Amino acid sequence: MDMDQETANALFEKGACLLFFNAPPNLEFGIDYNAWTIGPLFKGIKMIPPGLHFVYFSATSKEGVQGMRTGFFHYFESKEILVREWNPQTEDLRDETELDPDQIERYKINIRDFDRNMGPYPLVPSTHYDKWTKLTNYITPGLVRRILPNNGKVSHLPSKTSQEENLLSVKDKRRGKTIEKEEGMEFTPFDIRQSFPKSATGDEITRWSLDKSWLARDLLSRVYGNNHKILLGEMQLAFVCLLMAQNFSGFNQWKQFVHLLCSCPDLMQSDPHIFIDFIDVLQAQLDECPEDFFRDILSENNFVAHMLQNLGRDILPQQEALKSRFDKLRQFLTNRFKWELPESDEEEDDEDAPVVVEM
To answer: Are residues 130 and 205 in the same domain?
Structure first.
């Protein structure tokens, strides 16, 4: 679908701009699903649709080797002009706090002078932008400020070795040791195993350990103002941190949310609409997983499979809307990953993981 003139005009009026100065030669520069190797005349991106975007770059060495991808999330307001400048010492961006405010003001007043050197945000064909909005539609400016307080910046592990150490420290967590977290990420902390109130009786501990509804309701009221869409927004932010910035804390937080929301039969009975929205979010995410990533990471210990079997098992026969949404997800998994989820009413052993169907 090509962008019509009306949309183009609206974006010209309402769209935001990112001015980007002093980029080194051969910098790979990207926004959302679009990346380019930029030339010497490049001064930024214009006509950015208002909303959340991820801006990233990686420098190419003299030998032509691509560096680590670094980036930041920013919630662009309509007509906003964001100014960033490359700092060759740190191979990173200076943000506005490090720039001269008068200079920034002059740039903004003279924005038209840069017009020829700014690329338009690619909206034709609209597939990339549509995918991006699907993955981020619940992320609010407040979530970005809270979870990425460092001006939206996403850090990730500097070297291979610390990645491995980090993987080890994640494994240690099961034995009760702490997990290192990438700095600058403030995901909502919760422990899926501590899913009952502090004052819980023995019976309550048993009940809410199996059914995580108490924990989900506690998080909803304590953290998300009883708005499940903001909770799903954090799940989306965790996933795009993983997808776009290969960020490990994002992956852990995402898994925690999936685990939580696939283990709440009581909440599912009282608020089935939460779970319809959750399945929408999850399906859009799985659709964006590269095949090998899905096979290697998400199918590790059949994590996704077990979770979805729990979810399917908890849907009551009279919950028709939820049931039909879940069946669509099941069909999607078969088409996209050649994956069959066993029907939930068959009691299956752990051995009976989902079967890969040869199509």
So the answer is: no
